[in-house]
Structures are given as structure tokens and as C-alpha cells.
């Protein structure tokens, strides 16, 4: 009886941390969307790393529970030392995996974008580019076009589209999965102790709120992606215009170049005749 209640309490604590990822997912998507619509910010910064802090908190909870559990088993019964060591090592593996994933995502360099290439061309305003430099800008735009086409999601923010996004993004499945585990633990606890029927009601409520929260957050994320693509389309049009101007400038003849070439050829001929 006591063990089932302990498991239920632990899962409830995990669910609270996991549910905070959904809150952060929705809040940062709305925040970036509003800033983008007002023109205050042209880059999405908060939403891509919204889950970092909650997942880091989840890692701390796993660490605390794993260390406590392994320590109790280690000192309580000498025959359980292998199991205690296994639990401790498993905890370390989980923490290292979570920390590595967070580090890779946070320190990953930003991908090439229309805005980045456009800003580079603006900085080169007034500088006469060579044709190979212009071709390089064309190649970068083509690469961005191909990457955008590969990862372009649907513009729809319907519930089916949101469910597809939830399935495609594993971090959005954490809260629903833990809530289902909470419901199963609540059923087990109710079977062993029928004096707490409210526990099952609360557990089923966590399942409902987790699924609903995941869908709402996913729809907010889809709306943000649509707004970002609209902004990127504006950047692309500006970029293409700048590349066209740079290409025209690269093909212009330099003033006096023909006269200098003719004079150099004349001198060369005179030198050959004198020889």
C-alpha cells in the first residue's frame, strides 16, 4: 500500500515538471509570435529552447530520486548492492544523455537564413562584387530554399495538424506519457486502498489536461512557424533584389578600362616590333 502511494507521488512530481514544458512551450510561442507581429523582434529566440529549463528540472528530480533510492538499497541490505549500483549507473546515463542533448541544442550555431544573407549583402553595399561571389550568394539562397522546402510544415493550425506535430516532436509526448503512468498508478493505489477514490479522478484529470495542453501548445507553435515563414518570404524578396543589383554591378564595365587595355596592347606591340 505504502509503496504504491510512493510511486504515485513520484510520478505526480514528474508530471508537474513535464507539464511545465507544455506551459513554457505555449507561452514562448505566443511571446515570440506577438514580438514578431509587432516588429519588435525579427528572430525567434525563446521558443526553440522553451523545454530546456523544464527538462533540466526533470533531470534534477531523476537525479535526486535515483541517488536516494540507490543509497537506501546500498546501506539497507548488502545483498542489494548490485541493484543499487545499477540504479546509480542508470541515473548517471540518463543525466548525461539529457545534458548532452541540451548542450547540443543550445550551442548549435544558427542555420543560414534569408535574413542572414540579406544582412551580409547590405554590409557589402557600395562594394563591387565579382561574379563568383554573386554565384556564391545564389548558391546559398538555393540551399536555404531546399532546406525550407524539406522541413516546411503545413500552414494549418487544426487539431489533426497539431496532433501530427505532437507525434513528430518527442518532448511534447513527455507530459501525456507521464500522465498515463500516473493514471495507472492511481488505479493500482485504488485497488489496494479504496479510501482515496479522488486520486483516480485527479489522475484522469492530468491525462485530459496533458493531452489538451499538448494540442494547444502545438497549435501555437504552428501559428508561430507560419508567421516566421511569412517574415522569411519578405526577407527572401529583399535578398533577391539585392543579389540582382549586385549582379548588375559586377557586369558593369569599369570606367577607362578599355582605354587602359588598348594602351597596354599598343605598348606590347611596340616592344615586339622593336625586338
Secondary structure topology:
Layout lengths: L1 H36 L14 H25 L4 H27 L6 H10 L7 H20 L8 H10 L5 H19 L5 H54 L5 H18 L1
Helix pairs in contact: 1-2, 1-7, 1-8, 2-3, 4-8, 5-8, 6-8, 7-8
What does this structure look like?
With 275 residues, the protein is an all-alpha fold. The chain is 80% helix and 0% strand. Helix 2 (52-76) runs antiparallel to helix 3. It is elongated, with a radius of gyration of 30 Å.
Backbone CA Rg? 30 Å
Number of strands: 0
The main β sheet shows up as: none
Backbone shape: elongated
H/E element order? HHHHHHHHH
Mean pLDDT: 76
Low-confidence stretches: none
Structural class: mainly alpha
Through-space gap between termini: 111 Å
Brief descriptors of the model:
single chain; 275 residues; mainly alpha; 0% strand; elongated
Quick summary:
With 275 residues, the chain is mostly helical.
Amino acid at each position: 500500500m505504502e509503496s504504491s502511494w510512493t510511486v504515485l507521488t513520484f510520478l505526480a512530481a514528474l508530471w508537474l515538471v513535464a507539464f511545465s514544458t507544455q506551459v513554457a512551450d505555449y507561452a514562448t510561442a505566443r511571446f515570440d509570435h506577438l514580438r514578431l507581429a509587432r516588429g519588435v523582434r525579427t528572430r525567434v529566440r525563446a521558443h526553440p529552447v522553451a523545454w530546456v529549463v523544464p527538462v533540466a528540472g526533470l533531470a534534477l528530480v531523476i537525479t535526486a530520486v535515483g541517488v536516494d533510492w540507490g543509497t537506501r538499497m546500498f546501506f539497507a541490505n548488502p545483498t542489494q548492492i548490485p541493484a543499487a549500483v545499477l540504479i546509480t549507473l542508470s541515473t548517471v546515463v540518463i543525466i548525461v544523455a539529457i545534458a548532452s542533448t541540451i548542450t547540443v541544442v543550445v550551442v548549435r550555431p544558427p542555420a543560414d537564413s534569408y535574413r542572414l544573407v540579406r544582412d551580409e549583402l547590405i554590409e557589402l553595399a557600395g562594394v563591387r562584387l565579382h561574379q563568383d561571389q554573386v554565384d556564391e550568394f545564389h548558391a546559398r539562397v538555393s540551399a536555404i530554399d531546399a532546406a525550407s522546402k524539406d522541413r516546411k510544415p503545413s500552414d494549418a493550425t487544426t487539431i489533426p495538424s497539431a496532433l501530427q506535430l505532437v507525434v513528430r516532436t518527442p518532448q511534447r509526448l513527455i507530459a501525456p506519457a507521464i500522465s498515463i503512468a500516473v493514471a495507472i498508478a492511481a488505479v493500482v493505489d485504488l485497488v489496494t486502498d479504496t479510501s482515496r477514490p479522488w486520486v483516480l479522478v485527479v489522475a484522469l484529470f492530468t491525462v485530459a489536461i496533458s493531452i489538451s495542453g499538448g494540442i494547444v501548445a502545438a497549435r501555437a507553435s504552428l501559428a508561430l512557424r507560419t508567421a516566421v515563414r511569412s517574415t522569411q518570404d519578405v526577407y527572401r524578396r529583399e535578398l533577391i533584389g539585392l543579389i540582382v543589383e549586385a549582379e548588375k554591378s559586377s557586369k558593369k564595365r569599369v570606367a577607362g578600362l578599355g582605354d587602359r587595355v588598348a594602351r597596354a596592347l599598343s605598348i606590347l606591340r611596340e616592344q615586339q616590333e622593336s625586338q
